[in-house]
Amino acid sequence: MTVTAIPQTTPDSQADEPATGRRSRKKLVMVLLALVAIAGAAYWFVLKPAPTSAAPEPGDVVKLDPIQINLAGTHYLRVGIALQLVSGVKEADGSKALDATIDEFSGKDMAQVNDPARRAVYKKELVKELGHRYEGEVMGVYFTEFVTQ
Predict the structure, then answer these.
(1) Which ranges constitute the DSSP H helices of the chain?
(2) Whether the model pTM is above 0.70
(3) Which residues contact residue 12 at a Cβ distance below 8 angstroms, ignoring those fewer than 6 apart?
């Protein structure tokens, strides 16, 4: 006759099984937290976008002589402008600014030019155009004279 022995479990061996399950879960959580921390550090040091450069500081203001621009119909605009230069720039060729101003206002209707909201839009477009023509040397435009007839 063959006798088969049934392994007997003791109270101590039953208590060890759930503890090892808890330990493996804790290890898994710790490994996941470490991976998240490593991924965050990698983003911070490697993938984070570079900060944008600081806004340029204002420099000298160059006032240009007023010019007359033909509007629609028989009307005209007398406009004087001043250029706000970036610090470090001492001079600016005014012909580029005057040409851009003529391009911006020529042929416009007098009612459009006199509307303050549209004038602000025209000024923003002029500043943008001057930024391109002067390659970042001009950061603003001021109207020193603005007369329609």
Answers:
(1) 11-42, 94-105, 110-114, 116-133
(2) no
(3) none
